[in-house]
Amino acid sequence: MFCSSNSFTMKHTFLIIIFVTFIISGCGSSSSTKASNQNSHAAPYQEMHDQLPQEVMKNDQKGNETPGAEHEVSSTKSDHPKADFFTTKWNNRILFYAVGNEPSWSLNISKDNKAVFKTLDGLEYSAALISKLPSVDPKSTSYRFTNDKGEMIVNILEEKCMDTMADEEFSFKVSADFKLKGEKGFTTFKGCGDYVPDPRLQGKWIIIKADTILISKDTFEHKQPELNFDVYEGRVSGNDGCNLFNGGLRFRENEIVFGMMAGTLMACPNMDLSSVIAGSITDKKLRYKFENQLVLMEGDKEVMLLKRADK
């Protein structure tokens, strides 16, 4: 969904970008910098900023769809207080969002590589993604957005972040270094962010294939293995045909990130197959797509096929 580039010149500023992780720095505060050499993120790119051309190249290529986006997949109704919030963002094609306070601000990054940044005092900035910037930290990624009004560098650090105003925990620390055209220094806004969960995954799914093995009710004495996604709470639970398990669930671009699983330790027939099911998701980052059923993939390999449980 995002394309990236680690190098560019001012003669070649159009690059098509696939946006993955975002954002770095602390939570819940902002600070102004009078000169960009006072800012650890902006300083290495000051010469580039000073030479920013008047005409900004437009990125006309549409962003890639989230897996299965063209397939009509029904969502399960949820009474969770976050359900409407996330469903609205998903329907508006928001991929990643961030918030901060002191002063209050918000950032939405869409699936077509556009960023909209707003502050409570009326500042609103909308721009296209130009490039991904180099980083020495594998958990940190920086992106540059620009238009004829100014530019913004968004840094995303994969580290837990607490929004003290909302008393909510996020998976990323976010820093937005913002400068309008004509300003010498950047203003840094700090906060927390996360990827928008896919509401189509919410609810119970029956596992019908693990690895290359088809699974029926008879395989486990009529106990059908299943996964239960609570995308709003970031949890997954289910059974592998023998043992119950549950664990954490997060989202990345095009990926479901499963945490370590805790579960029961019963001994049952077909334990080898139960182990295949549990091992397919435990502590794994899996791509997914909808092809009538839900397909979980590790790289190009299909590791699990699921169908939505009957309501």
Structural summary, described in words:
The structure is a single chain. With 311 residues, the protein is mainly beta. The chain folds into two domains: 29-195, no CATH class; 199-308, Lipocalin. Helix content is 8%, strand content 44%. It is built from three helices and 18 strands. The protein has helices at 46-50, 83-91, 271-281, and strands spanning 29-32, 94-100, 105-110, 114-119, 124-133, 140-147, 150-163, 168-180, 187-195, 203-210, 213-214, 226-230, 235-239, 244-252, 255-263, 285-291, 293-298, 301-308. The strands form two sheets. An eight-stranded antiparallel β-barrel has the order 2-3-4-5-6-7-8-9. It has an eight-stranded antiparallel beta barrel with strand order 10-12-13-14-15-16-17-18. Strand 10 and strand 11 form a beta hairpin. The longest helix has 11 residues, at 271-281. It is elongated, with a radius of gyration of 22 Å. Mean pLDDT is 79; it is low at 1-72.
